[in-house]
Each structure stands twice: as structure tokens, then as C-alpha cells.
Amino acid sequence: MNAPPPSLPSRNPALPTMRQSLVVTFVTLQLTWVLATLSSGPFLSVLLRIGFIAIALLFTYTATGALRQRALPSSLARVLAVALMAPLATLAIFRLTENSPAKRELVYGYIMLAVVALVVGLLVTLVALRLERKARERTARLQDERERHTLERELLDSRLRLLQAQIEPHFLFNTLANIAALVEAKSDNAGPVLRHLIAYLKAAMPRLNDADATLDTELQLVRAYLELMHMRMPDRLCFTVDTPAVLNGLPFPAMALLTLVENAVRHGIDPSLDGGCIEVGGKLDGASGRVSLWVSDTGMGMSELSQPGTGLNNVRTRLQAFYGDGAKLDLHEQAPHGLHVELTFHPRSTA
To answer: Which of 71, 79, 213, 233 has its CA 20 to 30 A from that of 106?
Structure first.
């Protein structure tokens, strides 16, 4: 058995980051240039002293931030530690670089450099603390947004499952009603249609809860359903299913389009003495990227007093939950009679 790859060591929080080191280096060089110009001292000598103090303050800042103490807030502890280290680091570098006994000039130089180290060190510390606080706030905000998006997605998935659970019994009850009608009419086609319906349900049932359903799988169910209905009433139903091949892989809520086709058969073709035709079509607007799918029938149409039923309301709600609030379901009367139901939406990202 292969050993698992070794994990990368985590960064020691007591050590400065690359960004902190670069910022301190930049400030050190700028401060060295200013002091060397004002004091007319050797640049390297001034750089040695400023660099030593800067390194000491940087490590004090990071080490204090890594301490797990509760006596003081972390930001206040860092400020106090830097304020204490500034004169101590200045004294240490003077003792290391000056061999002559204490002179007035050296005392003045020490005091001036200690004050500069204290002021600049505190200013840089306060700026760093402010930047860290903003970074923490930004990280917390991003984390909250990720959690909110995750919760919204989970809520959306639960809502889709609930709505789909309402549609599935509706579809099954309609299918069983069709079987009952054939048996009661003692039609010669009852046996073949019943066998085809059983085969259709066996094929359809695994897809009822398919979270990865596509328009292609939905159209397969639509064609199978319409073929079964055509066997039941061959002289009263004709149909066409024609959508662009580019839409086949489009993620699509399972059973949504089939519900529209089912309504067209049940409420449009069945009640009509002459029957009618059903057209299932679709198109993709290349300019806007908007997709349109429709189910049209030349059946009875929608009466003035009728209202959209549970099936249409659920399809509209599922469509908006699946594609966003911009998705729409529109109903239009057709001349001389019939109904045109159209779904329009922007495909959701699969990333």
C-alpha cells in the first residue's frame, strides 16, 4: 500500500509573512535614506542600525500576535510590545556598534533614534493592525456569503424536491386514469396500450427524482408519452417534437415539460370532438442566450373562467427556482382555438 503524501508544514504564526517583510524593508530603506541625509552619516552604518531595530520590532509584532494570552486584547498587546521594544532594540544596537564610552553626542543620538523608532514603529503597527482587521472582516464577510449561498442552495433543492413530489402523484394519477378509460371503453387497443404504459412507467420512474435531468431525457419521456396517447386515439391526435440539438444537454427540471404536454392532452385534445395536434418546440436566442420552449395544441383552449391548475403553478414555481426569477411561463390562446404555453429562461451556469 502506498504511503499517503506528506502534508505541507503550516506556517509558524510567530514568523513574519513575506508581505510584512517586504513592507518593513521598504520602510527601513526610506527611513535610512532620510536619517543618513539629515545626519550626514554613512549610509551603511545608518542602515545597520535601522535594519536591526526594524527586524526586532517586526519579530516582536508577529510573536506577540501569536501569543495565546487573555490578559490584554491582541492589538493592545502588540502596541505595548512594540513600544517597549523600540528603546530596547535601539540601546542594544548602540551597545553593539559603539565601543567608546558614553558621550553627550551618543546619548543625543540614542534618544533621537529611540524616539524615531518608537514613533515609526507605532505608526506602522497601527496601520498593520488596521489592515489585518479589514482582512479579517473581509474574510468573515466572504465566509458568511458562502454559508448563505450554501443555505440558499440547500433551501432551493428542498423546495424543488417538495414541488416535484407534488407533480409526481399528479402525473401518475393521470396515467392511471387513462388506463381506466381504455378498460372501461373495452377498446381493442387496451391491451397494447396498457403494456406500453407499463413499459413507459418503468422507464420514467427512475427519472422522476433525477437531479441531473437534461432536456434530452425530458424530450424522450415526452415522445414516449405522446406515442402512447396516439395509440389510444390514433384518429384524434397528431404531434411533432422538434427542438435544436444544441439544447439537448441543457439541465432541465424533470417532468416539467411533460406536465405541459399532459395538460395539453387532458384539457385540450381529450375534450375536443375533433381532437387536434400538439407541437413541442424550442429555440435558442443567440444574441441574448435566452431559451424558449413551448407546447402548443389545437384543442379546446382555455375558457375565460378557467384558472391555471396545480400542475401549471408548480411548473412555473419550479422553473423560477431552477433558473431564477427571470424565468417565465406564459399562456396564450391560439386562433381559431387551442393553447400555447411557453417557457422562457436563461440557462443556469454548470460551473
So the answer is: 79
Which residue shows C-alpha cell 509584532? 61
Q: Where are the alpha helices (DSSP H) in the chain?
A: 18-39, 43-66, 74-97, 104-185, 190-204, 215-232, 256-263, 310-323
Quick check: bond before 336 cis, omega within 30? yes
Whole-number Å distance between alpha carbons of 310 and 141: 40
pLDDT digits (tens, 9 = 90+) for 42-67: 888 888 888 899 898 888 888 888 88
H or E element, residue 331: strand 328-333
Please state, in angstroms and rounded to a whole number, the distance separating the CA atoms of residues 322 and 170.
20
pLDDT value of position 2: 46
Residue 205's pLDDT is 60
Alpha carbon distance, N-terminus to C-terminus of the chain: 35
CA–CA–CA angle 41, 46, 51 (5° rounding)? 175
Contacts for 53 with CB less than 8 Å, ≥ 6 apart: 86, 89, 90, 93, 113, 117, 121
Count CB atoms within 10 A of the CB of residue 190.
16
The Cα 102–Cα 110 span in angstroms is 10
Question: What's the pLDDT score for residue 243?
Answer: 93
C-alpha cell at 115: 524616539
Residues of the chain below pLDDT 70? 1-11, 13-14, 99-105, 151-176, 178-179, 182, 187-190, 193-194, 196-197, 199-212, 303-310, 349-351
Q: 3-state DSSP call for residue 6? A: coil
Using CA atoms, how far residue 245 sits from 106, 160, 256, 281, in Å, is: 86, 26, 19, 11
**Angstrom distances, CA of residue 88 to CA of 52, 84, 111, 115, 128:** 11, 7, 11, 11, 21
3-state secondary structure of 282: strand
Q: How far is CA 166 from CA 173, 239, 255, 299, in A?
A: 11, 27, 11, 26
- pLDDT value of position 351: 45
